[in-house]
Write a structure and sequence with these properties.
The protein is an alpha/beta fold and 444 residues long. 36% of the residues lie in helices and 25% in strands. The strands form two sheets. Strands 7, 8, 9, 10, 11, 12, 13, 14, 15, 16 and 17 form an eleven-stranded mixed beta sheet that branches. Helix 6 runs parallel beside helix 11.
Amino acid sequence: MEKFGPVRVGLLGIGTIGRGTFEVLRRNREEITRRGGRSIVITRVADVDVERARAIVGDHAEVCGDGAEIVSDPDIDIVVELIGGYTVAKDLVLAAIANGKHVVTANKAMLAVHGNRIFAEASKQGVMVAFEAAVAGGIPIIKATREGLAANRIERVAGIINGTTNFILTEMRDKGLGFEEALAQAQALGYAEADPTFDVEGVDAAHKITLLASLAFGVPIQFDKCHVEGIRGLRNIDVRYAEELGYRIKLLGIAIHREAQPDGPAGIELRVHPTLVPARRLLANVEGAMNAVWVRGDAVGDTIYYGKGAGAEPTASAVIADLVDVARMLTVDPDNRVPHLAFQPEALVDVPILPIDQARSACYLRIPVADQPGVLARITGHLADAGISIDAALQKAAEDECQTDVILLTHVSDERRILSAIEAIEAMPTVLGPVVRIRREELG
């Protein structure tokens, strides 16, 4: 018999994730009650498609078409926001907080843009905003970073945190497809939306790595300072050359806490871009639509978290884990709960997000050149002039008999040096097109 009454939940949006949450919560009701100490029941659902919502929930919950009814309902303890987007969801979440309700959300876009305000309001009202499902679907990376790694000074985070782009890159490598063909395949299988812009341009991954950076380093959320590059311009030939060199290309979200160096200031690198990862690393072997996040702490060393980053029930798993956390909190001292962003609100620090021209990384360069003697020597001369050393080199015949592709891997250098060297190389008369540059990370 329950010591406390049921926790009453209002659900905003019963699309794919909302339906998964509703069904898993009912299917595993007994186990969830055992874990949370009290039952968790969705009593009201709001969705613009009222008839479809009623068909899903039957007589197990009341359905309405206006989320404002739920966030103002005095009988609701927790509001679960699964609408998505930046605006309506934000307004409803802030209204729920103002009404003293705890919030669980999967909305990484809303939190990346409005999270500082949302968490500040939640702290004032003494309520929780839980968001495990906002990053990497069913992988409990928020809890791992916020709680499991609390003893560590976290140094680096890198993640494959968008399943759509990882599926596309896997298809390009395994089947030799071009980007557009692989994207069409992803859309046909339901991995990509009809408008895939947020995924393929890196915006979705940027939302997520921004949240992880805040949790890892104890800084305010700063999405507007994240450098973002997508995979739309990636060519299959570079995927093949990377493979020959012992690397695979992944779209990574990367956050690095960098100490002050003689050649650069302290700060945080926050970036999303295609990245060469050594094929022997675990991240390089994350295939299809799966996600993985690698975290390095000073005490624990390297850790990696792998699983499904999207889908109805994997994401519902994270949503319900947050509901259980709130249910547990409701039965204990609320003043001693885990902080939203891992650090106590007054302990957040204003470490700057470094502009991309102060980032440091190794690089892959593909340079289309005329097949003439001395070209490679002149290219390496420009790199040497910029203070950049070479790690490996390939020279490959192109389809045009008069052209050769020179492929170079550089050692770590700062962004300004590599851009200066590329500018000088592209000015050479024997260089026949733009230099393709892809950053490279060893990750361990």
